[in-house]
Design goal:
The chain is of the alpha/beta class and 357 residues long. It has helices at 10-16, 18-26, 61-72, 84-97, 119-122, 124-131, 143-152, 179-187, 207-214, 232-241, 258-263, 278-285, 298-301, 313-326, 335-338, 342-355; strands at 2-9, 30-36, 46-49, 78-82, 103-107, 137-140, 158-161, 193-198, 221-226, 248-252, 266-269, 290-293, 307-308. The strands form two sheets. The protein has a seven-stranded parallel β-sheet, with helices on both faces.
Length: 357
Amino acid sequence: MNILYTASTARHIQDFHLPILARLCADGHSVTVACRDAGTLSGGFETLDIPYAKSFFSPRNVKAWTLLYTLLRRRFDRVLTHTALAGFLTRSALMMAGKRDTVCVHTAHGYLFGRQAPLTGRLTYLFERLCAPVTDAVFTMNAEDFGYAQKLVRRGGRVAAIPGMGVDLERFRPARPGEKAELRRALELPEGILLIYAAEFSKRKNHTHLLSAMRLTPPGITLLLAGDGTLREAMRRQASKQGIGDRVRFLGYVPDMAPLLRACDGAVSSSFSEGLPHNVLEALSSGLPVAASRVKGHVDLLNSSCLFNPRNPAEIAARLQAMVEELQTSCCEDKGHLIYEKEEAADAFIRLFWEIQ
């Protein structure tokens, strides 16, 4: 069977999809992976570099769409799309190339629209509506998105819930006795309470209100920010202007988060919208308490006492202080049902994928 597998970046494929791709190739299917920087990937699949721009509205995405349209004229038996931008461009190109008997499945890693989403994110609801006629099934990762998908899938199409993309539970585990101190020395981290937020620097991830909240927390708490993005330098300037530059560390992209998480005391996520957030799943698997915004994805993973209004710095600061004072061991309501090992999550995805006709 001829399968097209698309996502926005090679990093996304590398982080989440290799177990699924390995299974498809092992079963004898011909798989083409189309994403940005595709040449950095290796496996039993063909790759095609698609130069997606980050913004939905960038004119550079015309070239990306054209490449996808040309590719889809080859006729694939199945098309699997991941991430909002790649999902829209691929499915709209499929619509123009002619769907025919192609089965198209889209995985929503977190719709960009929702109750707390910025206006630009809410506009993507229209893109999903445009893609509905060629979307045979949508896989979602949280309850709110499941409800949206039921309104967005084509008549007769299917909506199914999947347990995220899974976590490598051998790597993401609680620190052993004495390991936290050893890791702090090895990673040259400061003493005191260390909180970690792993996220790209974008408006959706909402570093702005988190930094404003840090200004309201007592000394002795240091925030580690792991990730890259267009707003990184702006956030660095904000931290300096607010007088907390010495209490916030900008780590850049961290290729291996596991030891860093074990070195920390707690994790935070202040974003406006999520799917089933991998950073939170990894923190919980590492035995860390988590404070997070009261948005979809987070509410599926955490008790209400762990959540805060992402637009209220005072409330964020109060939750961070409470988390530190309470020394919670976990905020997860039911790890047995919500945190899946990577191979187990791949099994669930493949099983559902082949059920779609």
